[in-house]
């Protein structure tokens, strides 16, 4: 996946000294993070990276903390998730993500081999998303004071002048497009939880949406009102957020929302609603009606949007409700999750 | 609370346990509440226990009745 | 999903709805109570009200064991969970239920109590085996559907010789509650034309358990599955009985329910549990012989006996209309707290507690529907 | 400190639901973070902030994770520390810090009143440093999976064209200037550890070095080679890092290094070296010899540099050793900390 | 800091150094061993070598209890720490010391063992009181300075009736080690002109404890404080004795050391501990009556007895020159691992383990000094 | 390991404990190893225990000797 590098440490574990700011930390960084993430900005070797200022447009800045459990799951790991969590938040503004920072909080005793694997996953995810990890920080906390590893990433992107996507721009009549099936990530994580003990082939959808977004911006231009990735809280939370922010309602068609059979099955088994389950490689777009079909076609032409669908319409509603025509023919509200307790999924 | 779902028995495990499958999702459950469960049976699964066996014949009959009732009016037949 | 998808067919639904509409007699109202929270949830989730004619009015019953659990029993569980050395396990539904003073098992967990969500009773037994230094208490709740799972757990704990496993029994019984509603427990007669009987409860107790509805209260009852077509079909069956002036016990959910039920499950429950003299239901008050407790011979597994739990009765919130709603005399929108002081995020009354509660289902899935005249629609 | 705001939540605790992406999370953000951090970029309400691109120069990007224990300590708290940790890393490049992101990882059960206090501390520290917290993320992990609260911040600053400060720019003959006494932060934290049980009036030096840096850049211009804040690992680690990075040695004068009596006393009691103890409001600058006195005067004129001192000289040394003439008259090496175990201090 | 700052005066130091240089006789070498790691550390920290004339050569002795603890005793402590239910407490210095196979107590902690750093023995007793479900084992180490602190902890544990507190005794004795060096335990005579005697050990055992140095080995000894002026003054006192051909026991650190020492501390130690037949020292080998163990009457507090610890002897690393260094026959730079295979980050031998070890002090504070002829200077 | 430092007793606490001060930094230690400790005494503190009392008179005498020795040569007198 990368150029030859020193053999990863095996058998060793992270100790408090690895976070103490001394030689052990420098060695940890040099042996694990530097080779996995290598780029000229990171190589400056300072406590900060100096970067060229992008020409024109606006900066976009976002952060995400990855606290997923388990750290490795079908379709990804905490490293990939940490990269894509921030990259996608940048992409949702129509931005081209450029630079990432990574802040590691590591529990004493964490296997160095796992850290190495995760660092390489971060490197691979960053390359896939076209971003460079240019600066970072490493802390170690006592055993029992964290859950193996947490990673907070922050990212900088640039959005061209004239492209203004924001959650408050949905207008009645606009179409709501979903880029693919919902619930894959959350269910893939759930499948790894011992106490739920079910098995499925399902993989997390964790992916950087950057190229899909580029195709969408190219296809829809200013007709694109906004995008958002339905992560924690799932599609339900995201649509309610957008409805609240734009002061509108939404009318969804349940039959149009793609849900994989395994996701449906798990939801039936556990009494969950696929619309409230986290995704890490999906987006919701709101687009002016006249551009909806063009945008949909562009999305479907891209592997990350192959199952894209128009799932609803923005409607006027002072109560800002998200309503849904059920596949069965009735109508219901799609509300925020009131309080179901799911394992930590992102 | 009474959430339960029919799933197919795909393997019998020791200790009155069985593996069920629901559209390819598999899960181990207890079959302590049902005697004589066999692979291929569909059972109603509730909080990890098989509560009842699904009777395929009765299911077919119910669906027949449903279809019949749904076809009684013009709209249903449309 | 076999035996599921077939019963969710929207095309058949439209036909069935048309038939119901056609068969419902003009000017007549069919007041049908679905006893079970599973039905209430399905009605809301599939928007079934939109498919039924005005003449058919669905009334949500008390069949959500989480909703009807009295506050004092939550309080007692929270107090127990806070004791050092105790690990309190329960189903996810129960953990959010508010006790007195705005607390809940989840809040107790946040404050440091060892409270764990389990999917199955057997997970709790497994915890007790894995962590012998903890005393694992399973907060058992549920109707007849769920009680056998508790019995199996007790069987396993007994077989494994576990001294560190106990259970708080909050299991309740369907027939006494149904009887109380039909009898008008507070002196008011129930104003019901028919009852949609529980699906999964009935797999255990059998359809014969409802004979009293017809025999004593001349009320027809159809045991129905939880899928939306099951429900519609049951409605049609009830409409037909009512039109004919009949009052029989029928089973729509024949693929899983027999007249006698699951005898093995019944025997296991019988071995471990016996009826309480009376049990308090939120919204309904104390009902005779409506709850179960562990038999005295098994006191070693009975957390109420072992830990001297003495739930101290807490009055239902005064403004809450749950009692009237659970008897079909009021609709959720007619409570003045509905959607204002009382929401699923901050429930006041029993019916707002679980997604299967009448008020919660109405709020979460159906509040877009027109509010009753003279009442502002909550945003 | 700020405009009137809703009364902070009292008695409540953070629950898992506060991190689940639903209404409870939105309410937590609206009631605690939004009022404490209010600014127009944050108010965009998206998962990212869109920002004007600064004109000219270069961007500077940095991140820091704050994992300090205890969370509140004399002279500061984790919120102030998290802001200044990143702000200072930006300032060390000569940058004007502009924007911060905050990523919160909160342990279930954390008191809401403490979270509110920390959020307000972040707001105050950000205002003091002239930065805006424009985007954030909030995660909640189960009780026992974190240590109350971790905060990762990332920051963007801008450095004017022509100002190039980097750890590799120290040259033999350059002077090493320290902005004030060493060890205050680490000892203030240590004083709060139950198991060490000593008492002192000492306060953490936690502060944003931005205005001091501005004065330094104005005074020394291009004669300023580099700056670095001696945080974890203390002055010893920082000087060794710089020696390694620039390929030089350093010759220090112990007598010139300011150490407060309480810091000396605690170090004697516990067998620690003040040069290895963390600081959070100090900087080391390396400057061309001809500008050293000018720079020193400018630093001393600023409250954050009142005790500034020239503490050494950069020397040629292929072994890149940091040597020190002791106050007693002998000479010794100042090495990286080999492995002393200190409580978590930043 | 009173009684500290006065003894760190650089001005006086220069004067004292000049006097020493003036009094050192031309052509003569004064080979003085500072027994104690505290002195070794002070010499390095203050760069005292730069102040002394070439004629005075300071030789680092074995007086760092961490350095000389044999690997097998670390191994045993690690194995015990890994047992469930055990909380192993020790001073910070000890936690990094490598056992066999690159492990250490810190690494065991990282891998999940409950290992805690304490500042004082009494902290370990407090943990045992606070956490009655844990068995708290204090890994005791140290010379006569530190043994009384262990005795006080045992007194407290006894008074509190603690059944969950025990101690692994690694306390060692200064006089037997000094005797071994002066006697040339391996058959080679020690080539020392004088000894700088321990500061704080001597506050407990008193200056009289060193009479044998003069009496049996005709070697002068000056008990010196740990501050740099104390050391310089002691050097001057030794130079003067040597010049005069004397061999007396003198005390420079009179402000804290008496001839008889701290009788109360001695009595407490006597109550709890008795000498072992022999004790192994890293670098020096087994020395008779050089270590202490708990008296059999207190076996309940003796972790070695209670947990059946049987340390399995591990040979010192073959290339390590510690033995020769601790006897003053080699300098750290003369070991071929010094700074290459062996550094404070990855210590191989005893002398590199603690900051007070001869090799570690040399490496961390003094490696800029010229390397011996024919040997490359490590970077 | 034998790290110890003189500190002043500023208060006596129950249970053979005392508060010592070192340049304003205070710490509670055990004085179980010394009889008759009084406020104002300086004691040598080692791992939380007072090991020995500092004799001010001897300290002064040592300093006198030091000053004297340091002044013996021209360089020392400079
Ligand atoms: S809305 Fe709340 S208070 Fe009103 S009846 Fe329903 S549960 Fe009771
Ligand atoms: S350098 Fe290491 S191996 Fe060599 S003598 Fe010293 S401690 Fe032993
Ligand atoms: Mg984000
Ligand atoms: Mg994100
Ligand atoms: Mg997002
Ligand atoms: Mg950092
Ligand atoms: Mg996420
Ligand atoms: Mg940084
Ligand atoms: Mg920093
Ligand atoms: Mg820095
Ligand atoms: Mg986020
Ligand atoms: Mg820091």
At a glance:
The complex is a heterohexamer, with two copies of chain A (346 residues), two copies of chain B (78 residues) and two copies of chain C (379 residues). Chain A is α+β, with helices and mostly antiparallel strands and 346 residues long.
Give short descriptive properties of this protein:
heterohexamer; A: alpha+beta; 60s Ribosomal Protein L30, Chain: A; Phosphoribosyl-aminoimidazole Synthetase, Chain A, domain 2; 2 domains; seven-stranded mixed β-sheet; four-stranded mixed β-sheet; 28% helix; globular; B: alpha+beta; SH3 type barrels; five-stranded antiparallel β-sheet; 2 helices; elongated; metal-binding (chains C, E); HypD_2_sf (chains C, E); HypD_1 (chains C, E); Hyd_form_HypD (chains C, E); iron (chains C, E)
Question: What this model shows, in words?
Answer:
Chains C, E: Belongs to the HypD family. Chains C, E: Keywords: Iron, Metal-binding. The complex is a heterohexamer, with two copies of chain A (346 residues), two copies of chain B (78 residues) and two copies of chain C (379 residues). Chain A has 346 residues and is α+β, with helices and mostly antiparallel strands. Chain A has helices spanning 23-37, 78-91, 112-129, 184-190, 210-220, 234-246, 261-270, 292-300, and strands at 49-52, 58-66, 72-73, 76-77, 96-107, 132-141, 149-159, 175-178, 198-199, 224-228, 249-253, 284-287, 309-315, 322-325, 331-333. In chain A, strands 10-12-8-13-11-14-15 form a seven-stranded mixed sheet. A four-stranded mixed sheet of chain A has the order 2-7-5-6. In chain A, a hairpin with a 5-residue loop joins β14 and β15. The longest helix of chain A has 18 residues, at 112-129. Chain B has one domain (5-77): SH3 type barrels (Roll). Chain B has two helices and five strands, in the order βββββαα. Chain B has helices spanning 56-70, 74-77, and strands at 5-13, 17-22, 25-30, 42-46, 49-53. Chain B is elongated and about 50 Å long. The mean pLDDT of chain B is 92. With 379 residues, chain C is of the alpha/beta class. Chain C is 37% helix and 17% strand. Chain C has 16 helices and 13 strands. In chain C, α2 (37-46) links the parallel β1 and β2. In chain C, α1 (10-23) runs parallel beside α12 and α7 (121-130) packs parallel to α8. At the A-D interface, α1, β1, β2, β5 and β6 of A face α1, β1, β2, β5 and β6 of D. β1 (49-52) of chain A pairs antiparallel with β2 (58-66) of chain D. Bound molecules: iron/sulfur cluster (2 copies) and magnesium ion (MG) (10 copies). One magnesium ion is lined by residues 64, 85, 88-89, 231 of chain D.
């Amino acid at each position: 996946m990368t150029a030859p590098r020193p053999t990863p440490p095996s058998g060793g574990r992270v100790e408090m000294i690895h976070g103490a700011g001394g030689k052990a930390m420098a060695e940890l960084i040099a042996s694990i993070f530097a080779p996995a993430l290598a780029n000229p900005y990171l190589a400056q070797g300072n406590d900060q990276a100096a970067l060229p200022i992008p020409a024109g447009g606006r900066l976009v800045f976002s952060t995400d903390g990855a606290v997923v459990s388990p750290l490795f799951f079908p379709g990804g790991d905490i490293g990939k998730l940490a990269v894509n969590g921030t990259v996608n938040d940048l992409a949702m503004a129509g931005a081209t993500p450029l630079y990432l920072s990574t802040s590691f909080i590591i529990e004493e005793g964490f296997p160095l081999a796992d850290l190495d694997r995760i660092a390489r996953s971060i490197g691979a995810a960053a390359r896939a998303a076209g971003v460079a990890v240019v600066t970072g920080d490493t802390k170690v906390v006592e055993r029992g004071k964290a859950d193996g590893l947490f990673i907070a990433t922050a990212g900088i992107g640039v959005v061209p002048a004239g492209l203004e996507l924001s959650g408050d721009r949905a207008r009645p009549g606009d179409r709501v497009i979903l880029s693919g099936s919902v619930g894959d990530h959350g269910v893939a994580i759930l499948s790894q939880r011992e106490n739920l003990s079910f098995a499925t082939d399902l993989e997390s959808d964790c992916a950087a949406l950057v190229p899909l977004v580029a195709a969408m911006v190219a296809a829809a231009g200013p007709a694109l009102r906004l995008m958002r990735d339905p992560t924690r809280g799932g599609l339900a939370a995201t649509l309610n957020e957008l409805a609240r922010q734009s002061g509108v309602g939404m009318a969804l068609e349940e039959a149009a929302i793609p849900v994989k059979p395994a996701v449906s099955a798990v939801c039936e088994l556990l009494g969950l609603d696929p619309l409230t389950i986290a995704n890490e490689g999906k987006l919701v777009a709101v687009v002016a009606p006249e551009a909806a079909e063009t945008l949909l076609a562009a999305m479907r032409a891209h592997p990350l949007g192959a199952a894209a669908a128009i799932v609803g319409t923005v409607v006027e509603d002072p109560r800002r409700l998200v309503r849904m025509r059920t596949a069965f023919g009735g109508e219901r509200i799609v509300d925020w999750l009131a309080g179901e307790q799911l394992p930590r999924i992102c | 609370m009474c959430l339960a779902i029919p799933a197919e028995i795909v393997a019998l495990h020791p200790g009155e346990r069985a593996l069920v499958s629901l559209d390819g999702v598999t899960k181990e459950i207890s079959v302590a509440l049902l005697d004589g469960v066999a692979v291929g049976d569909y059972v109603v699964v509730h909080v990890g226990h098989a509560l009842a066996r699904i009777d395929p014949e009765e299911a077919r009959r119910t669906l027949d009745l449903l279809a019949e009732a749904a076809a009684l009016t013009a709209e249903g037949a449309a | 999903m076999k035996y599921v998808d077939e019963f969710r067919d929207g095309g058949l639904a439209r036909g069935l709805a048309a038939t119901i509409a056609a068969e419902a007699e003009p000017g007549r109202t069919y007041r049908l109570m679905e006893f079970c929270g599973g039905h209430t949830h399905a009605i809301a989730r599939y928007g079934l009200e939109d498919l039924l004619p005005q003449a058919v009015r669905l009334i949500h019953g008390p069949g959500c064991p989480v909703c009807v659990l009295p506050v004092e029993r939550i309080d007692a569980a929270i107090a127990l969970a806070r004791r050092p050395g105790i690990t309190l396990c329960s189903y996810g539904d129960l953990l959010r239920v508010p006790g007195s003073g705005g607390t809940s098992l989840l809040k107790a967990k946040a404050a440091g109590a060892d409270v764990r969500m389990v999917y199955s009773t057997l997970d709790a037994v497994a915890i007790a085996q894995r962590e012998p230094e903890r005393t694992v208490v399973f907060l058992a709740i549920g109707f007849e559907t769920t009680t056998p799972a508790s019995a199996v757990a007790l069987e396993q704990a007994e077989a494994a010789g576990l001294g560190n496993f106990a259970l708080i029994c909050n299991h309740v019984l369907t027939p006494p509650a149904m009887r109380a509603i039909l009898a008008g427990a507070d002196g008011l007669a129930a104003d019901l034309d028919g009852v949609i009987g529980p699906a999964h409860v009935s797999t255990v107790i059998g359809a014969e358990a409802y004979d009293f509805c017809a025999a004593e209260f001349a009320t027809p009852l159809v045991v129905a599955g939880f899928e939306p077509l099951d429900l519609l079909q049951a409605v049609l069956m009830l409409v037909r009985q009512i039109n004919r002036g009949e009052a029989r016990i029928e089973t729509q959910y024949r693929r899983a329910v027999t007249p006698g039920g699951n005898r093995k499950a019944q025997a296991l429950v019988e071995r471990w549990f016996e009826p309480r003299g009376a049990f308090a239901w939120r919204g309904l008050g104390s009902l005779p012989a409506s709850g179960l407790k562990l038999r005295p011979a098994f006191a070693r597994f009975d957390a109420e006996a072992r830990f001297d739990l003495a739930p101290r009765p807490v009055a239902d919130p005064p403004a809450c209309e749950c009692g009237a709603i659970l008897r079909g005399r009021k609709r959720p929108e007619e409570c003045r707290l509905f959607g204002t002081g009382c929401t699923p995020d901050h429930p006041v009354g029993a019916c707002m507690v679980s997604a299967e509660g009448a008020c919660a289902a109405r709020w979460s899935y159906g509040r877009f529907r027109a509010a009753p005249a003279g009442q502002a629609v909550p945003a």
